[in-house]
Amino acid sequence: MTETPAARHHREQQAGSLTPGSHILLPGGERTAEIHQVELEPDDFGAPALVLASLAGGGTLRIAVATTVTVTEGASDAVTPLPVPAEPFEEARQEQPGETPAAAPVAPAVVVPPLPAVPPAASGPSEEELALIPAPQGTPESVVEAAAEAHPDAMGVLLLADRLAKGVNFKSGSCLKDLSDLAHELFITLKDADGSLAVADLLNVLPYDGNPGRWTSVEASLALSSYICRQDGQKERAEVYERLIRTPENQETDPFKARMAAKVRQRSLNEPNLYDKEIFRSIDNSNHDAEREWRLLRLESLLFLRAHGGSETIGSGELERRISNELEAVRA
After folding, report:
1. How many CA atoms lie within 13 A of 255 on its CB side?
2. pTM for this entry
3. For 170, which DSSP code?
4. Measured between alpha carbons, how far is 62 from 54 in angstroms, rounded to an integer?
5. Are 223 and 95 in contact (CB under 8 A)?
6. What's the number of CA atoms in the CB half-sphere (13 Å) around residue 206?
7. pLDDT digit string (tens) for 163-216?
């Protein structure tokens, strides 16, 4: 019996080494499919645990990293049936005169499940909604100077204002961090909501440039602004900030990567780092300064969760309670 190239040229390898373009033998051993894209999903310890192989013909295979799979060499269709070996007695059997030829056995089809739906992309605010964010009164430096003049005895504000007085550079990550810290200092320590919003809005209108380091400061500013406006009854303005905070979520155009990013994002929302161990350790050591710094980081995490709409583990009501508790603790 003549063998096809697909039947002869094959090799075995671990699933963790699969690459796009490989032709893998599907479960059941009767068909192959070309791999379009490969993603590694880590376990809870961060080690690669699961291979998600997107197939060119549609569908996704979930394979453990250490599983040995068969890869065929040479070109083939996206989904190609492999030859089914004939039974020994069938090869020796001769067709008798006048006998109707028996139908060839049909290999069972391998059903490849369709890809799950792509998560909906977060839509940004319209021009009319963006108009709810007031334009700054003067230059960024003058806004910072006005905040410092309103609180001449606040050392934290004065130190940040002195650094920013040299010039506000929106391409500098450290400058964005100083602006975000100033907005938080005005609201959290001095309870100056209007001054805090004026400084925060210098950051809130910046577009997402793909740099996570710079965006962290903008994200913290947006979350704080959303909370202040909600507390002040400015619901529509708060919704604009909440849409802006989701800007990075609609940047990925590849459906497979968008699904993976949404899964990772939801996991981080469900299991946020609230710095419990660090806070308890500071309390045990009677280190009040360190405790306050850790609580400020916890407050930022809670404000982000609230602006993002909560999570599957912490509802909006519980978030409000925790934010109030943290504000009271850091202001004490």
Report:
1. 9
2. 0.65
3. T
4. 9
5. no
6. 28
7. 998 899 999 999 999 999 999 999 999 999 999 999 999 999 999 988 888 999
